[in-house]
Fold this sequence. Notes:
The protein is of the alpha/beta class. The protein folds into two domains: 86-110 and 124-234, no CATH class; 243-461, 3-Layer(aba) Sandwich (Rossmann fold), CATH 3.40.50. Helix content is 33%, strand content 15%. The chain has 19 helices and twelve strands. The protein has helices at residues 12-15, 20-27, 40-51, 149-152, 158-170, 209-213, 216-225, 236-239, 257-263, 268-279, 285-294, 303-307, 317-326, 339-349, 381-394, 412-417, 428-433, 445-448, 454-461; strands at residues 90-96, 179-184, 193-199, 227-233, 243-246, 330-338, 353-357, 359-362, 367-372, 402-406, 420-424, 436-438. The termini are far apart. Pfam families: Hydrolase (PF00702). Its cofactor is Mg(2+).
Amino acid sequence: MTESSRPMRPSLGQMRSSSFLQDHQQYKPMASINPINQSIGEVLANQVDENLKINSNPIKPDPERVTDSGVIHSIFNHQSNPLPSGTSQIVATIYYKSSSRVHPNIHPDVASASNDPLPPPIIPEGSAPTDDMEKIPREPPIPEPEPLDHLYGPYVSQLCLTNFLQILEALPTPYQRMNTSHRCLDRDEHPRVVEVTFSPPPNPEYLSFPDLRKHESIWRFEREWNVEVVLQKESVFRRHKRLAVFDMDSTLIDNECIDEIAKFIGVEKQVSDITERAMNGELDFSASLKERVGLLNGVPADVFEKLKSVLKIAKGARELCHALKTLGYKIAVLSGGFQPLAEWLAEQLGIDIAVANHLEIDEATQTLTGKLVPSYPIVDAAHKRTLLKSIAAEHNIPLSQTMAVGDGANDLLMLHAAGLGVAWRAKSKVQLEAPTRINGESLVDILYLLGLDNEDIAELTSESQ
Length: 465
């Protein structure tokens, strides 16, 4: 056999592939089963080779073992909603109290924008020394929460909203996943009114809705951020009501009518003291009313005409009533005051129904007798509630579609009976016991509770409507 006819012996070059990496993997010796027999060099070499494998990721977690650990807020633009449809929701309307800053002094960490002198510090009631042994506090006064609005802005700030969401997450027992969303109702930048919707609500077996409204954590949040929180159950009837009833004195008007009448005869001090105690719930309303009316004996009957020029319609009352009438509401004023003035106010504001007390007039002398007309019931707390229910029934309106607004203790039964009961700039006892309370500057703030924003309110209150 000649050398040219002898078959070629395979060479290493012929057996190699086009990939050095593949060749290396092909000829790499098998790793020892027992790693104890491997040298440190072999271990490191094997580790490097393993890391060179295509698409390998030694730190990639097992997706089947990853669990979702967080709570989703729509404030961060998350789109997923793990809660089933139809889950109950609660709406919290947060108002910043711009008219009453908790901390008027300028914080040392914030540069002053003006050269105005600082106001004098306010001493908490009960903390100053006294010579009266009965008034000496038995223990130091409870420190107020640190006011935060003067640090983070006189509005519902982002941090204020975040703090509220954290409080909501801590309320349910046991813990349950919660979804929240929010929208600014008056303006996007530095909002004064923000609406927060969250679901599901706390389990009523652990925390009922009335208790949630008065929860200590929410109260402390209000104090810290100088805000007020109004909680409502979300439903179509929250946004679409059909009947609104109002108290008159210190609600739709800034005056107390009987106090104004008392000025004419110089008994304002006695009457106003009784009025204040009655509105605070310290006195029986009917008995106190008869006592005050008795002091008006001999007052000329034309006093009501003179009072019309003295009465001051509350800020926002005209706009509020105009907006409600545009929406098709029936509106009533139910007053513990007097019928002539309630009728006059109804004409001024376009109110449909006016019910108040009737003073007896001596026809011969045309003066007040100091008595009430016995054929008309006294418009006290119970009668106001009865009137609310009867007016709603007369117009086929369920109570869930009614709203009541007042400030005195004689309004509490009415506030609790209505679908939405609002204590407006109310007395202390009423603020504590009413379902909701607002202490704003304008009655227009009540429209935010119906889910309306500034654009809606502007359209409803425009003169072209």
